[in-house]
Each structure stands twice: as C-alpha cells, then as structure tokens.
Design goal:
It contains five helices and no strands. It is an all-alpha fold. The chain has one domain: Ferritin, core subunit, four-helix bundle (Ferritin). The structure holds MU-OXO-diiron. The site of MU-OXO-diiron has 7 residues, from helix 1, helix 2 and helix 3.
Length: about 180
C-alpha cells in the first residue's frame, strides 16, 4: 500500500503520459501533412510507447491497491513551424517529463517508499534514453538541415528507428507489471 499523496502524484503522471501520447499523435499527423512518412512513423511509435508508460503506472496503482484518478487530457500543442522545431519541442517536452519523474522519485524517497522508488527507476532510465535519442535527432537536423536532401536522409533514418521503437515498446509491454 502506498500513501494517498504518492498515489495522487502517480495519477497526475498518468495524465502527463497520456498527454505525451496525444502530443506525439498530433506531431505524427503534422508530419503526414508534410509527406514525411518516416517522421510520422517515428512519432506514431512514440505515441504507442507513451501509452505503455501510462498503463505501467496504472497497473502499479492497481497492484498497490491505490486509487486511480483519471483526468481530462489537454488538447495537444500544434507545432507547425518546421521539422527542427518539432524535435526541439519534443526535447523540451521530454525534459519536463524527466523533471516530473524526478519529483515523484524525490517524494517516494522522502516517504521511504522503497517499492515506488524501485518502480520509478525504470522511468528514470527510460528518460535518459529518450532525451539522448531526441537530442541526437535535433543535432543531426541542425547539422544537415531540415529541408531538401538532409531532411530526406533523416526521414529515412526515422523510418528505420520507428521499427526499433515498436519492437522495444512491444518487449516493454510484454513485461509491464
Ligand atoms: Fe513517457 Fe517520454 O515519457
């Protein structure tokens, strides 16, 4: 059993994960309008990954016999000023998610809630990987440009990466608690 405060923080994070999924779905749709199939596939794969994050937390609350409080998901922000900006916003967004995960972990440690602290470790590690991946994409877009041949090359890379994200998400959901 975990505290009411801890459960409330996790419920709020479930909402943020659903927002992330919604945000990436919007960015996938935006990429489709730009004929960037690889970018659209990558954001669609990220959409699925964020849903698995929300459901991991949902399952944790259920397993801890804690209340699940589902809240309205805000409309996602529209990013229409180019591919570089789309990925810069993605990086900024992931950094806010990292910050909220860290706040939850701080709270768990304050409460000496070892179970939740261990549970959250997975998300801490996941955020390191997610930020690094997006930072790399932003760097490549700055280096090669977000138009013309440079963009085509990166879009092709994202198509390949999307398949990998899909496989990882599948493996993750298979082990979700
Ligand atoms: Fe579930 Fe990318 O944060």
């Amino acid at each position: 059993m975990i505290s009411q405060d801890m459960a409330a923080l996790i419920s709020a994070q479930i909402n943020r994960e659903f927002y992330s999924a919604y945000f990436y779905l919007a960015l996938s749709a935006q990429a489709e309008t730009m004929n960037l199939k690889g970018t659209a596939a990558w954001f669609m794969a990220k959409h699925g990954e964020e849903l698995t994050h929300a459901l991991k937390m949902y399952r944790y609350l259920i397993d801890q016999d804690a209340p699940v409080v589902l809240m309205g998901v805000a409309a996602p922000e529209a990013v229409t000023d180019g591919v570089l900006r789309i990925f810069e916003r993605t990086l900024e967004h992931e950094r806010t998610v990292t910050s909220s995960i860290n706040t939850m972990l701080d709270h768990a440690l304050t409460e000496k809630d070892h179970a939740t602290a261990i549970f959250l470790q997975w998300f801490v590690t996941e955020q390191i990987e997610e930020e690094a991946t997006v930072k790399d994409i932003v760097g490549r877009l700055r280096l090669f440009g977000d138009q013309g041949y440079g963009l085509l090359m990166i879009d092709n890379e994202l198509a390949a990466m999307a398949k990998q994200v899909g496989k990882t998400a599948g493996a993750t959901s298979g082990t979700a608690q």
